[in-house]
Amino acid sequence: MYGWLILAEGILIFLFPEHVALLLRFGPLDHDGSMFFRVVALLVAGIGMLYFVSGRMNAEGFVFATLLDRPLVPPIMAVLWYSGKLPGSLALLFAVQELVSFSWTLLTWRAEFRRNMV
């Protein structure tokens, strides 16, 4: 589920960089900014594909590693927002998305673990 979400975000940013930038309150992008945003979109989509494929292949080590790193995102976003380096709406969006997807992954992983123990 999380991989699909990240993949979709990357595709949307790649196809509509100006609209996404306005939605995230980045302001208008010049040509170079639009191209760099598209490069970031490809990286985001690649990470989404990595999550999706790893999930489909039951890469338990990868899932465990993501469970270690994703809870760190909300506090990091809070620090970036507090220091004025990130707009509040963007920090909140990333923090909520990571927290919800972390919870989903953890609950699914635990349910799968319990199912295999029986």
The first-to-last residue Cα distance is: 25 Å
Query: What percentage of residues falls in helices of 4 or more residues?
Result: over 70%
Number of helices: 6
Count every beta strand, where a strand is a DSSP E run of 2 or more residues. 0
Give the integer mean of the pLDDT values. 88
The largest sheet, given as strand count, sense and whether it forms a barrel, is:
none
Low-confidence stretches: none
- Please compute the radius of gyration using only Cα atoms: 16 Å
The shape is: globular
Helix/strand structural class: mainly alpha
| Count of folded domains | 2
Strand residue content: under 5%
The string of secondary-structure elements, in order, is HHHHHH
Describe the structure.
- The chain is mostly helical and 118 residues long.
- It folds into two domains: 1-57; 60-118.
- It is 82% helix and 0% strand.
- The longest helix is centred in the C-terminal third of the chain and has 30 residues, at 88-117.
